[in-house]
Write a structure and sequence with these properties.
Elements (H helix, E strand, L loop, with lengths): L3 E2 L13 E3 L7 E9 L2 E8 L2 E6 L2 E6 L11 E4 L4 E11 L2 H17 L3 E5 L7 E8 L11 E10 L4 E11 L1
């Protein structure tokens, strides 16, 4: 899927202002896509303040949330009824050339993926939020349990930061 030009100002001012939640309802979205992956309905949502992914029992939000505790967990595991959910996040500070290459890679991955949503914010072609989701778990180790994994990228061209997240949701 090609990147969407988002019709709103880029609201996240810095990577260290991102927050994480599994408890939020829908926030106003600038773009949204519903897909079916590995037999699960998945909603990919781009916000003025980053992303939400709703899949099975998970309502993942990574966004700049006023009043919330700042920071993303390096790793997190939760076990909602019948499922295992794993999350990880990494923030990289890159020189301009490396930053541009990583943003181009994220855009390419989103463009080539069957199930993705990618937005470019006004003001910079490198101010990007991208989400790519794919099925996982089926057939691995003889398992026929449904599962999926998604990756996100949030880029901050003003300071060369890219926040990358990886999430995995599998039936137990």
């Amino acid at each position: 899927m090609h990147a969407v030009s988002l019709q709103a100002a880029f609201l996240d001012t810095a990577a260290d202002q991102l927050c994480f939640s599994l408890d939020l309802a829908e926030l106003p979205a600038l773009a949204e896509r519903e897909v079916s992956v590995g037999g699960l309905a998945v909603r990919l949502r781009l916000l003025g303040a980053s992303h939400q992914v709703f899949a099975g029992p998970v309502r993942e939000t990574v966004a700049c949330l006023p009043g919330a505790v700042r920071g993303l967990p390096a790793t997190l595991t939760r076990r909602p009824a019948g499922w295992t959910y794993d999350f990880s996040a990494v923030t990289a500070c890159l020189d301009p050339g490396e930053f541009s290459a990583r943003v181009a890679d994220a855009l390419s991955r989103a463009d080539e993926a069957e199930h993705s949503l990618c937005g470019v914010f006004p003001g910079s072609p490198e101010a990007v939020t991208a989400v790519v989701v794919e099925a996982c778990g089926e057939g691995s180790g003889g398992s026929d349990r449904p599962g999926l994994a998604w990756r996100t990228w949030h880029s901050y061209p003003q300071d060369g930061h890219i926040v990358s997240t990886h999430s995995r949701l599998e039936a137990r």
